[in-house]
Amino acid sequence: MTGTDTGVGKTLVACSLLRAFAARGMTAAGMKPVATGTAHGTTGDVEQLVAASNVTAPREEVNPYSFAPPIAPHIAAQQAGVRIELERIERAFHALAARAQVVVVEGIGGFNVPLGPGADTAQLAASLALPVVLVVGMRLGCLNHALLTAEAIAARGLELAGWVANHIDPDMVAATENVQALEQRIRAPLLARIAHATIPDPGLVASQLEVAHLMRLFAAKRDLHGDRRALNGRGRSVRTRAIKSARKRPI
After folding, report:
1. Domain boundaries, the chain
2. Catalytic center residues
3. Minimal CA–CA distance to 238: which of 92, 135, 55?
4. In what order do the strands lie in the sheet with 160-166?
5. Domain 2-242 class?
6. Which of 69, 126, 149, 230 has the fewest Cβ atoms within 10 angstroms?
């Protein structure tokens, strides 16, 4: 789960996806690899993901890195004397994937945010090799942000599974025309248009999401990569473990 910027509704959409998968009888867990702006060891984004999940998991799996200052993660890590390690995040992800059929991983900020020397969120996304859902904050300037982000996702060899138009600016002029412009240019389906709301309701958004498309995509990925276990002594591929179907409850 990525966005065109910070504050565009990634957590809302991630929680809505978790609720939508859960409503279809699947076990679903949310993950926030890196969070900033925490207080007393908690962060609003992480708490919302935990509340929307129907799987219990240790905090260190859900949120491996948490920093108090509301600043860029690489700066927060530097100030704390911590190095953000992609390997640690990958281990936490695998642990979550063993607990749930679906793991929704929410990024921080936009698609390419520095995490430290030689590491960024785009590298993290590539290392997890998951299909990406893009949240577009509908406001003036979003066309450029959305199209550049879609290009960046493709450049990393990742699949854009779909995108969500979140109307964060209630006064945006020609909002519908902007959505139509993105539909014509982004080679991925529009999963939902979220109307502006002072207090968004993840349950309502969950009912609007085109989850069936994502489930078909994940099932196809599972079938395509399911035989990798024989080639990988450590178990299933990252993609297959991210969205895995229990033997008695196939997607």
Report:
1. 2-242
2. 32
3. 92
4. 2-3, 132-137, 160-166, 190-194
5. alpha beta
6. 230
